[in-house]
Amino acid sequence: MRQQPHLVSGLIDACRAAIAANADYLCELDRMIGDGDHGTNMRRGCEAVYADREALALLPVAEALERAGRILVASIGGAAGPLYGTLLIEIGRQSAADPEADDFAAVLKNAIDAVARRGRSEAGCKTLLDVLYPVQTEVARHTAYAAIALEAERAAAATVAMKALRGRAKFLGDRSIGHIDPGASSCALLTGAICAVLKEQHPV
After folding, report:
1. Each residue of 79-89: b (16+ CB within 10 Å) or e?
2. For the chain, how far is it from start to end, CA to CA, in angstroms?
């Protein structure tokens, strides 16, 4: 993955804006089944990445992703930091290991599996994995960016019917049913932001 400063800057800006605009909403979701700070934590992580934006934009994309992932691990509180950080770090590492590879769907699948191992979770547990795996499926199908974003929204909404089996929410048992998972929601927001940038810079 070659150096693409405008792409990296655009992705950072879009993700930061999406989280900033929805931070209160994410906190409200988290108050229902968690600590109530998911929006605050995600905003802090995005601001930390943004603070390093100029340096990140000068790096090859793979290296920028890995470095951004480490920033998220260090700056986002709770489980979200290690999970989102692992996702970016693994995508970056795999891309750097084989820069000529063009099967991003496989890279993404491996990275998501690493997130699942890190969180000791899987699809169906009411976590961000319930958005990541459906998104990866659409990426593998070469689905249009706008449709991928819509699938992310649908997948996040589907967590309403799920019982939480991981994280603080699992202690609520059946009372966690009826609420959108905040991690799934932030993942859908970020997916939408990323897809919008990719659609603009690389129309398909």
Report:
1. bbbbbbbbbbb
2. 19
Percent of the residues in the chain that have a pLDDT greater than 70, as a whole number: 97
Per DSSP, helices labelled H in the chain are 5-33, 38-51, 53-57, 61-75, 80-97, 104-119, 129-140, 145-158, 182-201
User: What tens digit of pLDDT does each residue of 115-153 get?
Assistant: 999 999 999 999 999 999 999 999 999 999 999 999 999
| Domains of the chain, CATH where assigned | 5-201 (1.25.40.340)
Q: How do residues 50-66 score in pLDDT, each as one tens digit?
A: 999 999 999 999 999 99
Give which of 44, 113, 40, 52 is closest to 83, Cα–Cα: 113
Which tokens sit at 107? 């890279």
Look up the pTM and report it.
0.94
Write the DSSP assignment of 114-160 as a string of letters: HHHHHHT--TTSSSTHHHHHHHHHHHHTT--HHHHHHHHHHHHHHGG
State which amino acid sits at residue 8: V
